[in-house]
Amino acid sequence: MHPPLTIHRHPMCVEIIEEFQKCHLDHPIGKFFGDCTELKVKLDRCFRAEKAVKRKANFEQSKKMRERLQALRKETTEAEA
């Protein structure tokens, strides 16, 4: 199962999504018997890569926020003392 195939939400996978959707249109019955499986595998790999990029960006952002929070805590403890 894959997420909804909206192109604006998956900028890294635009070409593969279009190929996959075209395959489904070209093979309305064959899609149930594996005609589009190769593209599905490529699409899943692209989604995994896209998710890894997002995960890394979120981790970097959380690291910056954590550093800001620790600096703020240090300032408040020094101001209290």
Topology:
Elements: H1 14-26, H2 37-80
Helix pairs in contact: 1-2
Can you describe what's shown?
One of its GO terms (cellular component) is mitochondrion. It comes from Acer saccharum. This protein has 81 residues and is mainly α. It has one domain. The protein starts with 13 loop residues before the first helix and ends with a helix. It has two helices and no strands.
Quick synopsis:
70% of the residues lie in helices and 0% in strands.
How would you describe this structure in keywords?
single chain, 81 residues, mainly alpha, 2 helices, 70% helix, 0% strand, disulfide bond, COX assembly mitochondrial protein, mitochondrion, Cyt_c_biogenesis_Cmc1-like
Give the rounded overall mean pLDDT: 91
Helix content: over 70%
Quick one: overall form? Answer: rod-shaped
Strand content: under 5%
Order of helices and strands: HH
Number of strands: 0
Radius of gyration: 22 Å
Instruction: Give the CA-CA distance, first to last residue.
Output: 56 Å
Main beta-sheet annotation: none
Class of secondary structure makeup:
mainly alpha
Low-confidence stretches: none
Number of domains: 1
Number of helices: 2
Keywords: Disulfide bond, Mitochondrion
Organism: Acer saccharum (Sugar maple)
Subcellular location: Mitochondrion
Family: Belongs to the CMC family.
